[in-house]
Design goal:
The protein is mainly alpha-helical and about 525 residues long. The protein contains 26 helices and 5 strands.
Length: about 525
């Protein structure tokens, strides 16, 4: 069978909506020595879907090499590279796609997303403006430009862009979010409530748009001081998301995994001290290394943004750079024993991979204090202590009831970590398992972390920030008091950082008390941690 016949068979299967058959044909054809960009593209997509990211990159590179003028192939390559944490390479692929097909608006939108993830919001704005110019009838560029305007606190511009996007598509999720935020921040939550209720009653919105609308409706009702109705709206949106993702995530019980790790924590003893590290171990490029962690919605963004304004600090927002170490040591039986007894050569490979991934995420730590902020790093403390015994550890605590409620209200992307947060009961159990494991590690490992309460930092900002600087070994800088500077300058990719644009926000302190009846079912679990952390009953 010649190349032409093979491609005809693959295209026929795709047109008949038989993609599995088309991919099977593509794989057999490639194995038989045939070569065509469509064959590599199909095999790469299957590799992506099954989590085989490196083979996917290889196939997409081969497809791009055969058809470099296809922006879609460059976009597929960029997606695989991003999943591997190779963000700089992904950006290069998207730029190449934009150069190859400058009139293809979707590649500019994809490039803008990658630039936003890198924190290069100014370039993202330029890319989105290009996409909007190329496709004036597409609501997405306008909606995303509205998101960027809201993120830097330009609410009038955000409203104009969101309305323009909604005029083209009344269910566009990004525009709905932006316009609702504008209305709530300007004291008009009634407008958001009316529009969101009408959208939900219409019934034709996508599942993602419905979930977003339910969550935003809850936020708006909360602004109207209707906590019971607000909670019901959040719960409705979460229930739809839970059902949508049940098959994918319901079988993954991370709370049980954390409980088993805690039960096996005695395997950490005796743990090597800092002095046990081999003298020839590879040093990292940073002059200081800090891991900032705490359960999701515990206030780590506030401290991270405060420190990131400094020229001598390089910060990385919630990216996973410990991948090789996790894959090597934190899976399977006797994992902690293997980690404890690992030789320096293997540990050095994991260290080198970590720093390569950090640079791949677009962060240059050379000659600076490097801040790795990742809420879930608490469960990886043995790995961190073994790979980087000299690193400083900072842990943020927040009133447990506020944490679990805030996670319940938040419209996270659904992953194995965020799926349990869709219900209060599973969220509280997940929180408790995380905290129990983290504190078990703290008792066993030779580390001396700085543990602070988010509320204390808000209450006496200067005093607690001085303590943080002393712990990290940084001098005081007056610029750190302007916690919203990077947000207003459009240098922050995290949507949660928008809350910091106007300074310290005390509205979330003890916010759970307005929802005390709804949280009664999780009180026995959370009260134990609230008392342990010194919060009033």
């Amino acid at each position: 069978m010649d190349d032409h016949t093979v491609i005809e068979a693959v295209i026929f299967a795709l047109k008949a909506n038989r993609r599995v058959q088309a991919t099977d044909l593509a794989e057999r054809a490639l194995a038989a020595g045939h070569s065509h960009p469509a064959l590599h593209h199909l095999r790469g997509l299957r590799a992506m879907e099954t989590g085989r990211l490196t083979p996917a990159v290889e196939d997409f590179r081969a497809a791009v090499g055969l058809l470099p003028q296809s922006a879609e192939l460059h976009m597929a390559l960029a997606q695989a590279l991003t999943s591997l944490g190779r963000v700089d390479e992904a950006l290069d692929a998207l730029r190449a796609g934009a150069d190859a097909q400058p009139g293809f608006s979707h590649v500019w939108i994809a490039l803008a997303r990658a630039q936003t993830d890198r924190g290069d919001v100014a370039s993202a704005k330029t890319s989105l403006e290009r996409a909007a110019e190329l496709a004036p009838g597409d609501p997405e560029p306008k909606a995303q430009l509205g998101v960027l305007a809201a993120r830097r606190g330009d609410w009038s511009q955000a409203e104009r862009l969101a309305r323009a996007a909604l005029a083209l598509d009344p269910y566009r999720p990004a525009a709905l979010r932006t316009l609702s935020e504008v209305e709530m921040r300007s004291g008009r939550p009634d407008l958001a409530v009316a529009r969101l209720k009408a959208l939900l009653a219409d019934g034709s919105a996508s599942m993602d748009a419905r979930r977003l609308a339910q969550g935003l409706l809850g936020d708006a009702l909360d602004r109207q001081d209707k906590p019971r109705e607000a909670f019901a709206a959040w719960a409705a949106g979460n229930a739809e998301a839970s059902e949508l993702h049940r098959r994918q995530f319901a079988g993954t019980d991370l709370s049980a995994v954390f409980d088993r790790l805690r039960a096996d924590s005695d395997a950490c003893l005796p743990w090597p001290s800092e002095a046990a590290r081999a003298p020839g171990a590879v040093a990292g490029p940073a002059i200081g290394h800090v891991f900032l962690m705490g359960f999701m919605r515990s206030g780590t963004t506030l401290l991270e943004q405060t420190l990131a304004v400094r020229p001598d600090v390089a910060a990385m927002e919630e990216q996973e750079a410990l991948t090789l170490g996790v894959e090597t040591f934190l899976g399977g039986a006797d994992q902690l024993t293997r980690l404890r007894d690992a030789d320096e050569a293997l540990l050095d490979r994991c260290r080198a991979d970590y720093w390569a991934r950090v640079r791949g995420f677009g962060v240059d730590p050379a000659g600076k204090v490097f801040l790795d902020k990742n809420p879930m790093n608490g469960v990886k403390l043995p790995l961190i202590a073994r790979l980087f015994p000299e690193a400083k550890i900072i842990i943020s605590l927040r009133q447990p009831f506020d944490v679990v409620l805030s996670c319940f209200k938040r419209r996270f992307s659904i992953t194995s970590y965020t799926y349990p947060l869709l219900e209060l009961e599973t969220g509280a159990r997940f929180y408790s398992a995380y905290m129990a494991l983290t504190h078990a590690w703290l008792e066993l490992l030779p580390i001396r972390p700085l543990i602070y309460r988010h509320e204390d930092l808000i209450q006496d900002f200067d005093a607690h920030l001085h303590a943080v600087c002393d712990h990290v070994g940084l001098p005081w800088l007056e610029e750190m008091r302007d916690i919203g500077a990077r947000v207003r300058a459009g240098q922050v990719s995290s949507p949660s950082a928008v809350q910091l644009s106007q300074g310290l926000d005390r509205s979330g302190v003890e916010a759970w008390r307005r929802f005390a009846p709804e949280m009664e079912t999780v009180r026995p679990v959370l009260q134990l941690w609230a008392e342990r952390f010194g919060y009033a009953p």
